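To fix ideas, we quote verbatim one protein's residues and fold tokens.
>
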Amino acid sequence: MGPLRSKKRRPTFRRLLKTSGMKLENKLKNRQLKQENVAKKQRKEQKRLRQAMKGATLQIPRPLETYRKRPEEEEEEEEFLESLPTDMLDEEDLQQMTAMARKASFITRDLSSCGSVHSGKKRGADVVRGYEKVPRKMARMEEKEVIHLLPFKDKSGVIPRSVERAKQPRKEEEEEEEEEEPAETAEPEEDEGASSSYVEMTPEEREQFRVNTLNMKKQRIATLASAIISDPLNNMKRVKEMRGMMMEADPCVAVSVRKMVMVSLTEVFKDIAPTYRIRPLTAAEKNTKVKKETQQLREFEESIVSQYKFFLEDLEQTIKDWKQKKRKRSQAVSVQSYRGLAEVSVRCLCELLLTMPHFNFHNNIIVTLVPLMNDPLKKVSDMCCDAFRKLFHDDRVGGASLATVRVISGLIKSLNYSVRPEVLRTLLSLRIKEVEMRKDLEATAPKKKFMTNKEKKKNLSRMQRKWKKAEEKLEKELLEAEASESKDKKIKLHTETLNIIFLIYFRILKKAQKSVLLPAVLEGLANFAHLINLEFFDDLLNVLQNLIQSGDLTNRESLHCIQTVFTILSGQGDALNIDPLNFYSQLYTILMRLHAGAPNEDIIIVLRCLDAMLTRRRKQVTLQRAMAFLKRLSTLSLHVLPNASVGILAANRATMHSFPKCDILLDNEIQGSGFYLAELDEAEHCNAQNTALWELHTLQRHFHPVVRQFAAHLSRGAPSEGSAALSMELCRRSPLELFEDYSVKDMTFNPPVASPASKKKDQFVDGAMLLDDELQKRVESILSAAEDTHLDFTATHH
């Protein structure tokens, strides 16, 4: 019989194709595992060798005492050893003898000494004396690097091998040390020589010496800053060197150098700081192995955070020294000069506050700058207030604004409301309005550019277009989810911010009504009135009404109260059943107190109140009240500045459109009984229907062209079409916009006044002046006679 056939089926070619990839992967994994195991074994063997070498060196005995034998004894001992019959000894005896020879008690002991080997108690003093005889300092050995080689293996076991190589110091370190040592040694010598020679200089030489020193410092600062900015990863140690220059000890240039270093470091950190917040690494992250580039980035982040922290601490300490009027031990800067240093420090902190709100220690900067908003020095206070206004205006999310408002609330409470009004007025710059929120969401939403259909057909195949369509749909959904998440976060932050702001305002209204902060509080309430919760409406209206009736408020404060009330009633307060008749009377009374002086700026508040009281609430206003306001506003427009006149006339135009029956004021006929009482402060009972708007005829001769246009437009009934209609440019603008556009605050006239035509006088030529010939001849004869006669003033007349 032939050989038995194997029952195992041969794999087909298709099956081999399927399994070949898996086999290759398994082979690769096995090879990697073998390499790892071999590497582990090698590491373990090297570790054992090192431990064996270390143990062998520790087991070598060191003699406690060394004795120098006489030459006669050495010769006798050598003769004795040679005469010994070594052939009679076994190998075991030889090994035992060598082992005993390695023991210190057998070889190192002085045979001539009388002490026995086992007398351990008596040799304590000898051991101490032996240690005293050993030199205290070991000879300085050259550092050597031990390189372990592959060991030998024979019958006795493994024999380790190693090679010693002396360490060579790095050339770079030696060069740096050589450069640093002469510099360090030269500085004190230069300082001593300069201090001795500086006293002997004349004032001109001192000034020249100061200029030269300052130029050298400037050049040094510029060199360091440019090196840091060009390569931040490798030159972070230069930042420490620049910070060291903030402690300049030369009195003649100390203040200038410190200021320049502060400003330069601020610009450097603005340039090299990353656009994200750096968090500290966890213990697990520190222990994990990373790439070389990642490790370098981590070291850079750690160094920039530490240097930035030290820099902020230096700025804060400078401000504290100025506030406490301390003088440093170096005595390089006087107490008077600390004010300039503190101002530069505040300016640097304000710059970092605005340009790096995303980076670390931003809240620490806020805590440092908020108390300086209430500083007695106006320059410092204005710098901080302006910085926070810009921060509020540029803050699109609301995190920095919330942190600032919290610190301001704590400051006001800690100082018992005795702060400057400018601190509260900065809160007016907060961007907490629904319209601005939508704009911010559009600006902060991530923008993704998708391909057009034309580009898809041109560059993609049919299958690729299908995949691209699905991918773009998914990306749009993700972008919408991100936008909704950011909107919820923003609304949450704004709600918390508003709660703190209203808490500040209500505390002041309750506890400090006669404080200087009341105008700022009323202005803030008028600004954020549309966001106040309905629960506070009744109590707030009662408080504002009591404030107005007390008579302690100025015109501007009263106008803010009225604006707050009607802003509430025109918004969420529509559901409240409140008759604000008293507030109408208060505004009607205040109108006659305004004029072209300082109160001219209060007209803008009046225009806001009129919009909320007459235009938006036209269904709740009677015709008598509307006509009374129209007449008094026309009278007010005669004695205010041109921009206020334009704004008031624009408000009258809106009132006439809201109440068309007010056109009876354009006729001279009397409507009903009685006559107009101009001085009565009740708008409902002044009989305004029995008067006419004669002020419009006077305003038609106003020096401002826009005032003339509005007066002519209103005198014809404010038509929307026809020859008497206003231009589209004026119709589309609100009274507030017109008030701002035609403002004369900067001593500018809008529209600009045309320069008068130059009228140059004709040049008169002698002989062509007179029309009469005879008169012309007589004039010429007189002039010629005057030229011929010679006057002698030295001659004396008798």
